[in-house]
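Standup notes, structure subgroup. Blocker cleared on the flavin-adenine dinucleotide input:
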Amino acid sequence: MRELGIHGCPKKRYKVTTNSRHNLLVADDYLTQDFTALLRRQIVDMKDGGLVVIVPPPNPFRCPPGPYERASMIAHYLKHHKPKSTILILDPKDKHSKQALFQEAWERFYPGMIEWLPGELTGGVKAVDVTNMTVVTEDETHRADVVNVIPPQQAGWIARSAGAAAQSGWCPVQAHNLASKLLPNVHVVGDSIIPGDMPKSAFSANSQAKVCANALVAELTDNKAFKPRLRNTCWSLVATGHGIKVGASYEATEEKIAKTSGFISQTGEDDTTEDDTTRAATANEANGWYAGITADLFG
Ligand SMILES: Cc1cc2nc3c(=O)[nH]c(=O)nc-3n(C[C@H](O)[C@H](O)[C@H](O)COP(=O)(O)OP(=O)(O)OC[C@H]3O[C@@H](n4cnc5c(N)ncnc54)[C@H](O)[C@@H]3O)c2cc1C
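Run returned:
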């Protein structure tokens, strides 16, 4: 058959990854986009005394503090509008970013409202039944009013189909210039890469893009590139005017983007507790960073 140029035409097979025919009770949270508005609507429509279940993704994922900041923001709304409601976080992980800081803030601002259960306790989420609005773990079935599942993540299709992604689903790159380790003349920055010690964040992506551009200009002009300086800070707002943060500086080594030093807001476990003025200043920094990066990106 091959010699005669004849070949079969198998039917295209599609793998169903989302179920968009449901009645909007659960939104797949691959991208924020319209989903954010839908989640807001669901929470506004929820009865007082309702249960919001959040299922964060396993590592690695974009914006490590994201699901926990989201829980804080939902709690802030519920506290003022539906105070009998609760939030249950069914985490596949046993720990998460800024954990002590979030838990301290939840106890202070939303006592009894947010419960976080680690994977080692629940065995992780085994099923979500959209019709009956239940979330099933190894030993329990939770009847929810709003469910927010943030699925496991990988680099976008464009990166994977181009051959820039490794088996893990993420793109390996050289730390000093963000050149793909798999494709010649291709550079990858941002969430898609295997970022060494850096978290996947907009701050990191922006920092990597500048290192990459600097390396490319040096290469194209036959000049020496400046030493890569990579930085990240992840701010989270936990209540009005109350911010917490974690951040670090990084260098490019042969092996990876490696952390050189870091900082984190202080919890109240000892005398180093930050006062509300510091937390208000951190919230202001977060707003300032947002204004800065949007101006940097969009002019
Ligand atoms: C809820 C939430 C809160 C966050 N908060 C923060 C924060 O406070 N601070 C922070 O630093 N980071 C935050 N992040 C993380 C931040 O959004 C990401 O790390 C950042 O956007 C990564 O940038 P990127 O360019 O790598 O990817 P993206 O911003 O996802 O950009 C990829 C782009 O490629 C496009 N694309 C995909 N496929 C194709 C294709 N085939 N053809 C053409 N275009 C395509 C997509 O539409 C998208 O616009 C948050 C993320 C979430 C989800």
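Discussed briefly. The chain has a mean pLDDT of 90.
Next: hand off to the docking folks.
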